[in-house]
């Protein structure tokens, strides 16, 4: 392999129209996905949305009721996990407490009847990858949570898997260690260029770690894209809300328009001109979405034709380094956030002050509710 991926093979994963039921519950509904060679692909969604079930379908721990799983061009549907050459890491580490770190990592190699002579070297190399050299003789109980999770990672990597499957690997770690192990996982995954599927319900974790993310709700795929795609062009209100985009205002399409033209949306706090990437019809419920850094704040009533505006009162102001952040109450308790860039040239507004907020129609996005 001259491709710079020592020990790992080129591996694309495809899920084709997968359905998985548990009794009457359809836990996974017609999900089709491609995971590309060498990428870190995240399944993101709330508890119970089906993320773990999809991961287990990739690993072969579940079989689908319909659809197929491909590893490269090989149909692996129905093939058990041990014939898929995967490495899996769980939330709770799942280390054997009565075995040393060495034996925990060596276990899979022994099962695979790897010659004794090379086991020591492979275990050392795997522990080196996760920066745990020298801890071979300890027991899991003598390590911190972050160290235990790195052992679990070494145990998965020692087998040179084609695919790494990580199920909420950071959620048992406390905040500071979580950030550290997260950065390590990212670096290791990139260095090894191992195709990785990662499960989390934490949007920030997903946005910072992933090459691409699939957002899932109630067993259905909502959107697949890069972190930037999801942030810039959320497909619907669920995605926008789940990934933490501010300034979502529910409304209804008053006037649909042709492709590329602006549509008119009525909301409780005003009527706005918006762009839309998907076709929305007159009467459709929708949500308008304005990013705080694209809005501005002022006192005048008048706005140019291509700028939306509405009135409110400042309810909170804070300095966030490169911007001043205002939360403006726009009626009925709803808050609209404005990040004023370049605060040096800016006269501050006081809490309670009546203001108008402005946002270009070009940066006002209408998405399906
Ligand atoms: P969490 O983050 O809470 O683990 P998840 O998104 O990973 O959630 P899944 O574990 O995939 O969700 O579960 C999806 C749905 O399927 C849930 O409603 C769950 O209760 C159900 N489910 C999962 N595994 C089984 C099973 N073996 N038998 C019956 N129902 C199951």
From TrEMBL:
<dbReference type="GO" id="GO:0016887">
    <property type="term" value="F:ATP hydrolysis activity"/>
</dbReference>
<dbReference type="InterPro" id="IPR017871">
    <property type="entry name" value="ABC_transporter-like_CS"/>
</dbReference>
<protein>
    <recommendedName>
        <fullName>Spermidine/putrescine import ATP-binding protein PotA</fullName>
        <ecNumber>7.6.2.11</ecNumber>
    </recommendedName>
</protein>
<dbReference type="InterPro" id="IPR013611">
    <property type="entry name" value="Transp-assoc_OB_typ2"/>
</dbReference>
<comment type="similarity">
    <text>Belongs to the ABC transporter superfamily. Spermidine/putrescine importer (TC 3.A.1.11.1) family.</text>
</comment>
<comment type="subunit">
    <text>The complex is composed of two ATP-binding proteins (PotA), two transmembrane proteins (PotB and PotC) and a solute-binding protein (PotD).</text>
</comment>
<keyword id="KW-1003">Cell membrane</keyword>
<keyword id="KW-1278">Translocase</keyword>
<keyword id="KW-0067">ATP-binding</keyword>
<dbReference type="InterPro" id="IPR005893">
    <property type="entry name" value="PotA-like"/>
</dbReference>
<dbReference type="GO" id="GO:0043190">
    <property type="term" value="C:ATP-binding cassette (ABC) transporter complex"/>
</dbReference>
<dbReference type="InterPro" id="IPR003593">
    <property type="entry name" value="AAA+_ATPase"/>
</dbReference>
<dbReference type="Pfam" id="PF08402">
    <property type="entry name" value="TOBE_2"/>
</dbReference>
<dbReference type="Pfam" id="PF00005">
    <property type="entry name" value="ABC_tran"/>
</dbReference>
<keyword id="KW-0813">Transport</keyword>
<comment type="function">
    <text>Part of the ABC transporter complex PotABCD involved in spermidine/putrescine import. Responsible for energy coupling to the transport system.</text>
</comment>
<dbReference type="InterPro" id="IPR027417">
    <property type="entry name" value="P-loop_NTPase"/>
</dbReference>
<dbReference type="InterPro" id="IPR008995">
    <property type="entry name" value="Mo/tungstate-bd_C_term_dom"/>
</dbReference>
<dbReference type="InterPro" id="IPR003439">
    <property type="entry name" value="ABC_transporter-like_ATP-bd"/>
</dbReference>
<dbReference type="GO" id="GO:0005524">
    <property type="term" value="F:ATP binding"/>
</dbReference>
<keyword id="KW-0547">Nucleotide-binding</keyword>
<dbReference type="GO" id="GO:0015417">
    <property type="term" value="F:ABC-type polyamine transporter activity"/>
</dbReference>
<dbReference type="InterPro" id="IPR050093">
    <property type="entry name" value="ABC_SmlMolc_Importer"/>
</dbReference>
<keyword id="KW-0472">Membrane</keyword>
<feature type="domain" description="ABC transporter">
    <location>
        <begin position="13"/>
        <end position="243"/>
    </location>
</feature>
